[in-house]
Amino acid sequence: MRYGIYVVPAAIVLTLGSLACKPPKSAEELKQETQAAFNEGYQAFKDGKARATNPYMNDQDNPHKKQGWFDGWDKAAADKAAADAKAAADAKAAADAKVAADAKAAADAKLAAEDAARRAADAEKAAAYRRAAEGALKNIHFDYDKAEIKAGERAILQGIADFLKAYPAAKVQIEGHCDERGTNDYNLALGNKRAAGALAYLKTLGVDEARLSTISFGKEKPLCTEAKEGCWSQNRRGEFKLK
Which of 15, 88, 119, 214 has its CA 20 to 30 A from that of 230? Predict the structure, then answer.
């Protein structure tokens, strides 16, 4: 059997010969091509392309391009993973910081509320104390030239004793006062007797003497300055002042 002979065209021969004689690429060319392939692979990942879509997969003549493309794709994937991890860490840190800030704000608000409530309670106690003192610490009055406690004044002293028992920290100064008649020295002495008489009576009602003190102003601080009995009777008094 006779077979026909296939003659290769001269143009193909010349082309193959030129390829066979093509000089190798320089290191700089390989570097540039590898970098270009790397950039392509990096962009391919960003474009959502799969790793298996490497266009140089079957390019036997340019393995450096294949590897460069894979390296670019892998680098982009690693950068994305690192960025996602950082974003997740930042989000968690921000969430944790918010939780901590909210907890601190809640704790601060609670402390502020407790402090406000405590101050309000203290203010109310102080107001109640002042009201009780104003209601209890009334003046008592004495007969002319006398220091004895009159029967009609004992209820006032009982109220003062009750106040002092209700407020154990309270201390009271008892002031003895006189009307304008008599000398200064005489009235100072009489004022001392009146203050001492009130203190002694409060002691009989169970008040600790250590919480009481006395002073005499004689006729130095009159409440009324008219020269008549109605005015003098107001000035013959004992006053009770918180210390």
Answer: 214
pTM over 0.85: no
Give the HSE-up count for residue 241: Cα atoms under 13 Å, Cβ half-sphere.
Answer: 13
Q: Report how far residue 240's alpha carbon sits from residue 236's, in angstroms, rounded to the nearest whole number.
A: 14
Q: Which of 173, 186, 172 is nearest to 219 (CA)?
A: 186
Q: How many CA atoms lie within 13 A of 151 on its CB side?
A: 0
Closest by alpha carbon to 187, among 221, 141, 213? 221
Give CA–CA dist 242/171, Å, rounded: 6
Whether residue 158 is predicted with pLDDT greater than 50 in this model: the reply is: yes
Q: How far is the C-alpha of 65 from the C-alpha of 57, rounded, in Å?
A: 9
